[in-house]
Design a protein that fits this description.
390 residues; alpha/beta; 10-stranded mixed β-sheet; 12 helices; globular; GMP Synthetase, Chain A, domain 3; 2 domains; 4-stranded mixed β-sheet; 14 strands
Length: 390
Amino acid sequence: MKIKKTKLFKIIIIISIGFILVGCWDKKELDTISIVTGVGIDAANDEDKIDLILQVGKINKSNSDSFRGESVTDDSIILATEDKGILSAIDKLQKQTTRDLFMHHNQVVIFGKEQTIKGIQPYIDALLRQHDMRMETLVFMAEGKAKDILRNTMEQEKISSLGITRMVEAANRYYESYSIRILDLTSMIIDKTTAPVIPIVKLQDNGEYLRLFLSGLAVLNDGKLIGQLNETETRGYTWIMDKFKNTFIEVNIKEGFSNLDITNIKHKMKPEIRNGGELVISLEIIGDIIISEIQGFNNMTVKEVTDILVEEGKKTINKEIQACLNKSQELNADFLRFGVEFYKRFPKESEQIKNDWDSMYPEIKLSTNIKLNLIDTGKIVNSLNMKEGN
């Protein structure tokens, strides 16, 4: 029995030493790597080159001694260089630090607008070939230079790449239009009839500080920027692509003002080929309305007001959808994936018309059916200016 206890004690000691050694190994690894949190790609002065920017998170204050970067803040370091390719540029930047550049925790890839106009597809291809680049990494276009986005801090997030990621995560609770990963972009590029889109990140000077925010979508064709969606068109895109979880609609008419929460959103899209070969997309959207704010509507009954609000909600959704469709057909860019929907339902017919898709796309009709149901007026039914009763 004593011998068994001695053996057990030795085994416990060996396992404990193993855990201690593993802990030391992790600490040593952390001291020998530079964790890249953001990648930026801007157009360089040389037409054949790019300006590659890496944002590196600082582990501790002494971490900056390992770098010869362009700029150093309390929380991150910016490394930048010009080169023809991404891999050769990373190799150059590696020589600016004594630590290994670790890309596996990279949060964002941001293309500058000028580079997006020139084209981004070769660099997406290069990123796909990087073994330590995650396919879940978010992709953006900067309204300006990617470098300006990465080297600026945010009010609550000192490392801009982490702040942008958290903005997308916060938006994802309501809609997913701004969550475009390398994997998603690659899928859109592979679908030959689909025009890829990526979200736009902007830098705004508010006087006291610079503010980063997401606004609109960049539309690509052959990997090059051909147009941008504004806020209204982006909301239309979100409705058509079934990316809303819940949202709000602002009603501002002569009778009064109201904010409507739209919840329990359901979406159905059905492609049709009607008599004479007319291509039609039928879109049905169903949602519930909760009145979260109401002003005005003097001397009107609850039913009169709710009827108005439901109709105005439908009008707003239709307006946003139509604005998006108009921009899509104006650009002749099928970022709404109508071609994919037709192929799913009519594979034989789609094969026959695929070579004529570019000429047919601007003529596609969109038929919408919006159904909104009022389920809640909040804690009170009437506003202070409305009539009592139903």
